[in-house]
Amino acid sequence: MLKIFKNRFNRVMNPPSEEEYEECISDLINHKEVGSMRKFMQHGDTTTLEHSLNVSYYSYRVCKILGLDYRAAARGGLLHDFFLYDWHEGKDYKGLHGIHHPRIALKNAEKHFDLNKKEKDIIKKHMWPLTIKLPRFKESFVVLMMDNYCSIGEVMVWRKSLKRRIKLILGI
Ligand SMILES: [Fe+2]
Ligand SMILES: [Fe+2]
Question: Is 60 exceeded by the pLDDT of residue 81?
Answer without folding.
Answer: yes
